[in-house]
Amino acid sequence: MEEDLFQLRQLPVVKFRRTGESSRSEEDAVSGEHEVQIEGVQTALERVELEDGGTVPKEFANPTDDTFMVEDAVEAIGFGKFQWKLSILTGLAWMADAMEMMILSILAPQLHCEWRLPTWQVALLTSVVFVGMMSSSTLWGNISDQYGRKTGLKISVLWTLYYGILSGFAPIYNWILVLRGLVGFGIGGVPQSVTLYAEFLPMKARAKCILLIEVFWAIGSVFEVLLAVFVMPTLGWRWLLILSALPLLLFAILCFWLPESARYDVLSGNQEKAIATLKRIASENGAPMPLGKLIISRQEDRGKMRDLFTPQFRWTTLLLWFIWFSNAFSYYGLVLLTTELFQAGDICSISSRRKAVKAKCSLGCEYLTEKDYIDLLWTTLSEFPGVLVTLWIIDRIGRKKTMALSFLVFSLCSLLLFLCVGRKVLTVLLFIARAFISGGFQAAYVYTPEVYPTATRALGLGTCSGVARVGALITPFIAQVMLESSVYLTLVVYSGCCLLAALASCLLPIETKGRGLQESTHREWGQEMFGRGVPRSNSGSQG
Q1: Which of 2, 217, 215 lies closest to 97 in space, CA to CA?
Q2: What's the burial of 14, exposed, middle or buried (CB within 10 Å: 0-12/13-18/19+)?
Q3: CB burial class (10 A; 0-12, 13-18, 19+) of residue 58?
Q4: Pairing between strand 33-36 and 67-68?
Q5: Helix, coil or strand: residue 298
Q6: What's phi and psi for 75, nearest 5 deg?
Q7: Of the candidates 512, 509, 505, which has an alpha carbon nearest to the alpha carbon of residue 450?
Q8: Which residues are CB-contacts of 231 (< 8 A; sequence separation ≥ 6)?
Q9: What one-character DSSP code corresponds to residue 480?
Q10: Nearest alpha carbon to residue 298 among 276, 269, 270
Q11: Can you tell me the distance from the alpha carbon of 320 to that of 1, in angstroms, rounded to the nearest whole number?
């Protein structure tokens, strides 16, 4: 008997939790559980600490109690067939966005010659698209937070498709100016596809998947150039505008398959719809659903601008706005500078060439040649190395350091352009600079949806995208107008801007590598991953 009692003392504490509707005493109702306490055995739960940036162990994806959150379900179900389908669908939206942007560099010189437009009207045709994107980005983010990610994305895609095709029938300049502005207004909502996409991805795969989606941008740009090579000489620019809407048309057709974000449904109080979506993902992936009841954290005041400036997110929002501004300012500025530098051969000969060449008539024009299209193609291909480099480092050194490194390398390459290097070295420097600044852009697309809670995630991404368009609007005045007076001052502006952006990246208060997405603005950042079997390191002792 004594030996049996001794063995019993060695057993761990066993806890029985009541679930279901079985009858229980008043004492049970207070505690909610029965405990078998054995003298001499420690009853406190052991704290589990995560290493910095470490992923949540899989055993915590499905908690031991009878409740779970969307984050738990997404982690437990994992990456599978559903996410592959969603990747392709999101990629189509990005292809369409890239094609609508690339078409500006093809359409402008064609209309300049065909309609005998002055230079300022050609420039306005490009600027009006950015104005449309800038003015609508915040609106689309607000719609996506208020009425759902799927709703906002579908409306913006259908809007862009309609006015994109309609612009192919524009009879005069004023019509195409208005229609391209409306196309830009619709394109402002395309980044919301990243919001929807990120909310269905498990933590471990999120960064890699969002970066790989950026490959569709490069594919879309390349496809647009190849399409122009075959269409422009035979069918003309009107058919190019119409055929460029094909990815949008395909996306609109496949939209019926696209589910609403389960995170959004939970936040809007639609528990049944969220569970149905999660079951559908689990079924397609061949994975089991977590057991228990889904926790609802309903929040009515979603998509409010003031939530971006709470003490918790104020500093993050301001720093991200500057980072996104610098990304677009430097990226599009480099695209414009590349043509100027290639034509001059090197930096040192630009000023002398400017003085020697007489001012051209504003109505003088040249159609794009096959060589021009090849140059466009090679310039676009430089985006692929940027994706690969960012993909390799973002989960190793973190989001903040990846953005900082991208800006620093761009600044270094810009400063090296001060040297009178030959054409080959110039090409290498420009390609490295473009690869890293595009990589910085991609890292920002990974970080921004991760840092904001579900209640303001779409709005946060939308405002950042809108501020980026301001940078795209300003950069022609630096890369083209300032370049006329001072080449070196132009390079200093771009280099200095990116150095400040690198500092801003380091000053961001939150590193999102290896962390779950926050659901509600009423919770502390990262509370979904901490405190559910994985206590925070700075929390009090457990009793």
Answers
A1: 217
A2: exposed
A3: exposed
A4: unpaired
A5: coil
A6: -70, -40
A7: 512
A8: 239, 240, 243
A9: I
A10: 269
A11: 69
Give me the residues paired with residue 15 across strands: 35
Which of 90, 222, 227, 127 is CA-nearest to residue 472? 127
Between CA 102 and CA 326, with CA 418 as vertex, the angle to 5 degrees is 45
Q: What is the 3-state secondary structure (H, E, C) of 57-77?
A: CHHHCCCCCCEECHHHHHHHH
Residue count of the chain, please give it. Answer: 543
| Spatial CA neighbour of 479 closest among 489, 490, 492 | 490
Q: Which residue has the tokens 């090409």?
A: 427
Strand 33-36, strand 14-17: pairing: antiparallel
Cα–Cα distance for residue pair 374/358, rounded to 1 Å: 28
Helices and strands, counts by H and E, the chain = 22, 4
Whether 225 contacts 373, CB under 8 Å: yes
Read off the tokens for 513.
């590598």
CA atoms within 13 A on the CB side of 360: 9
Residue 474's alpha-carbon distances to 191, 339, 488, in angstroms, are 21, 18, 18
Q: What is the pLDDT along the chain (543 residues), one digit of tens a residue?
A: 555 444 444 444 433 333 333 333 343 433 344 433 434 444 444 444 445 444 444 444 444 456 777 777 888 888 888 889 888 888 888 888 888 877 877 777 778 777 887 767 777 787 788 888 888 888 888 888 788 888 888 888 899 999 999 988 988 888 988 998 999 899 888 888 888 888 888 888 888 888 888 788 888 888 888 888 888 888 888 999 999 888 888 888 888 788 888 888 887 777 788 888 888 888 888 888 777 777 666 555 555 778 788 888 889 999 999 999 999 899 888 877 776 666 555 555 555 555 444 444 444 555 666 666 776 677 677 778 888 888 888 888 888 999 999 999 999 988 887 776 666 777 788 888 888 888 888 889 888 888 888 778 888 888 888 888 888 888 877 876 677 677 788 888 999 999 999 999 999 988 888 776 666 554 444 444 433 433 333 333 333
CB atoms within 10 A of CB 396: 10
Neighbour count for residue 23 (Cβ, 10 Å): 5
- Confirm if 436 and 116 have CB atoms less than 8 A apart: no
| Cα dihedral across residues 496, 497, 499, 503: positive or negative | positive
